[in-house]
Design a protein that fits this description.
By secondary structure, the chain is an alpha+beta fold. The protein is built from 4 helices and 7 strands. The chain has one domain: 2-Layer Sandwich (60s Ribosomal Protein L30, Chain: A), CATH 3.30.1330.50. Strand 2 and strand 3 form a beta hairpin. Helix 1 packs parallel to helix 3. The model has no long low-confidence stretch (mean pLDDT 94). Bound molecules: magnesium ion. The site of magnesium ion (MG) has 5 residues, from strand 1 and helix 1.
């Protein structure tokens, strides 16, 4: 078994759609970033990469590289998971927290959970997405942060 931790944070940027966990959330502001700035998917992908000791997301998909400009972060997550599978490992479970004072994420937690489980082809029961506010402390006012822990277990052998 392997365990990995991921963390990410992005500032608000008013001109973009807000993407969290592969879901577009209706809100006046999105997040700044070279890719689509999906802070939750970045944290989960880094947890997967960390669990297998692979280079982190920023190293594998360098910000500033033209190929990743406005890139769909679902691709980052899927590529990270492909590396996990190649090591003969599968997801035991993922536990993630999004830290944001705005918008209120409670109505979207289940959608994010389902979106991540669909991307990784694991049961939604193995994916947890929680939402926290900062009670007004940074970074809640200026952006959104996310953290994730993942447990990997040996893949079942094909019969
Ligand atoms: Mg990021």
């Amino acid at each position: 078994m392997r365990i990995g931790i991921g963390y990410d944070i992005h500032r608000f940027n008013g001109k973009r759609p807000l993407k969290l966990g592969g879901v577009t959330i209706p809100f006046a502001r999105g997040l700044a970033g070279h890719s689509d700035a999906d802070v939750l998917l970045h944290a989960v992908a880094d947890a997967l990469l960390g669990a297998i000791g692979a280079p982190d997301l920023g190293e594998q998909f360098p910000p500033g590289h033209p190929r990743y400009r406005n890139a769909d972060s679902r691709i980052f997550l899927q590529q990270a998971y492909r590396q996990v599978r190649r090591q003969g490992l599968s997801i035991g479970n993922i536990d993630a927290t999004v830290i944001a004072d705005q918008p209120k994420l409670t109505p979207y937690k289940m959608r994010m959970r389902r979106a991540i489980s669909a991307l990784l082809q694991v049961s939604a029961a193995r994916v947890s997405v929680k939402a926290k506010t900062t009670e007004g402390f940074a970074p809640g006012k200026g952006g959104i942060a996310a953290q994730a822990v993942v447990l990997l277990t040996p893949s079942k052998k094909r019969q």
